[in-house]
Write a structure and sequence with these properties.
Order of helices and strands: HHHHHH
Largest sheet: none
Structural class: mainly alpha
Shape: elongated
Length: 166
Amino acid sequence: MTLVGFALVAGLLASACAGPEQTGSLADRVNAWVSQTQMGAAVQTLKVDALNVTAILKRHDPPSQIRTACALLTTDSQTAEGNLTTPDQQLTNELYAAYQDGAAAGTYCFNGAKGNRSLLARSDRARAALPGLLDVAVARVRSITGQTPPTSTTSPAQGSGDPFAG
């Protein structure tokens, strides 16, 4: 009897400590995770980073500027990856693939910045794939929650009616 009581109390205490991304329906948990991690802003940031790298390479900017843009893509990808796992394994897998692709694109670019065509070509392929990989993850969020996460890199106003607002 004591063990059952202890287990019941421990379970209640654990659930009381659970954050919103750990309780409720899958849609509620994913909504909470998206809001907490600002997943939509991370997605948009990575898309912009990839476009910036492409623009810098097309302009034939100096290697130092290329490396700066490439390092930002890698860093932003790794930062976003640090927000994993999600409440949904498929979403976690999709975001992981996208974030790994972004980090690889940035690393190949950084290492090829002085003109290594092979590495720059690998970076080009990874950057070309990145938006599609990110869009798949956004579609997964939409299929779970019925809403598309906002991709603005600024936070929505409190009380705006946006379920992803902080």
